[in-house]
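Inputs:
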Amino acid sequence: MRGMILKPILVLVLGSTAVFAEYSKPVKTPSITYPLKFDKNFTVMQRNCQWCHSFGYITNQGKQSKKFWNASVVKMRDVYKAPITKADEEAITEYLFKHYGNGKLK
Amino acid sequence: MQRRQFLKTSLVASTVLLGFELNGSTLRKPLDDYKLSDYIFPEKNQLIAHSDRPPLLETPREVFQTAITPNKDFFVRWHSPKIKTHSFIAGYRINISGEVEQPTYISLKSLKEDFEAVELSAVLQCGGNSRSAFVPTTSGIQWGNGAMGCASWKGARLKDVLKKAGLTKDAHWINFNGSDKAAFYKAPRLTRELKIDEIEDDVIIAYEMNGEDLPFLNGYPVRLIIPGSYSDSWIKMLSEIRVTKEYVPLYYMDTAYTMPDNKMQSETPNHKEKKRIPITTMNIKSIIGYPRSNTPVKIDEKVTLKGVAFDGGSGIKAVLISADNGKTWARSTLKEELSKYAFREFSYNFQAKTKGKMTLMAKALNNLGQEQPFTHKIAWNSGGYKYNGIDSVTFEVHG
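Outputs:
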C-alpha cells in the first residue's frame, strides 16, 4: 500500500528514469516521421497501411519491383486481415512502385 | 538513401570478393551503415530505428565487444502495433489452461517467490538478423547485424510452473502467447508451440534481464527463454500457456519463420520450396565489434580487435582471424564461457604495416565441428533467414 501511495510522487520527481519502478502509466514510445513522397494515391496508402505499421516498413525495404510491392499489399490483406479493397490494392501498389520501385515489373 | 547504402556496400563487397551470383540470387555483406536515430526510446540508448510502430530497434556494431549486451542497447522487435503497458502489475497473470489438472493463474509475485530461481546467459537473435545480405531483397525488415544480443536471464523453470498446474496424460504440445495485440482481430498471433519433450531445464520464464526488470520494449514483465532458439520463439509479455493434445498449426511457426526443407536449405526467387521447416536452432555466427569501418588506425599502432561469437548451444571452440581475405587464419584469444548459449568474447592484437585499406575477417568454429561459411557459399532463401556469413571490417590505415 505504501508503494502505491508513493509511486505517483516518485514518477513526478524521477520521470522515466526509474528503471526498477513498475510502469504506473502507459509507456510512450516516440513518434518518428519517416518522410514519404506525396501524390494522389498517398492518402489511400496512408489510410490502409497505418492501421498496423509505420512508414519505416516501406522505406526500409528499399527500391522494389511492382510484383514485390503488390505481393506485400496482398499479404497485408490475406494474412494480417487489413480490409484493403481491390481498388485500394491497385492504388497502393501503384503508389509504392512509382516512388519506391526499381523500374522492374517482376 | 537506401540506394546509396546499397551501392556503397556492394563496392566494399566486390573489393574483398564477397559478391557471388547463384541462380539469379546473390548474397552480399549485410548493410553496415545505418544511422542511429535521433529519437530515444524508453529505457534505451540511441539505436537504429527501422520503425517506431511497432518498434523495431537495431543495436549498432560497436556494442558487440562484450559477452553481455546492456539492456539499454538491446535490440527490439515487435510484430503487433498494440503493446500493453502493464501498469497494474499486481494484477498481471500468466494463464495456464488446456490439458492441465488445474487451470492456473500465476502472478509475477508468485513466479518470483514460489519457484526456484534460475539464471542463464543466452543469446537472443532474430531469425532475420542480417537479412539485408539477401539479394534479391526478401520481404521483411532489412536488418544489419544488430538484431541480436546476449543477456543474463533470471526466472522460473517452465517445467516447475507446468508442474504446479499438473499435466494430463493428453498433454503433448504447449502453446505460448503474449499480451501484445494485432490491429485486426483475425490476424494471426505471434505464438509459439513446443513439444512437451523439448522442454529442457533451461527453458525459463524470465522476469529479470541483466539483474533488472525486463525493459518494457523487451517484454516486461516476463518473457519465455528458449536458449539456442531464434527470438520468434521467445514470447514477450507472456500471458497465456495453453496445453494441447494435438499440434495447432501456427502462421508464424509454420509459414512465416521457415526455411526451405531441403538439404542445402536453399531455393530461388522463381522456385520457392513448398516443403518448409521452422527456423528454430541458431547456426554459428560471429561479429566483429571493434574496429569498425570508420575507426582510424595508424601504422604500427597496437590495436585489439574485439568481437562476439555464438551458436545454437554446442559452444564456441575457436574464432579465427584473417588479414588476407581468408587465405590464412590465426587464432584469436577467447574469453571465459558464460554458458554454451552465450556470446563468447574474442580478441586479437594486431599492428598494421602498410597505409591504405585493411580488411580483417573473423570466422567462428563450434564444438560440433561446424564453421562459419563465406558469404558467397550461403544459399538464398525467401524469408532472408539465418544469415551467418564470415564477418569482415575494412578500415583505413593512416601513416
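Remarks. DSSP finds five helices and no strands in chain A. Helices of chain A lie at 2-14, 42-49, 56-59, 66-78, 86-100.
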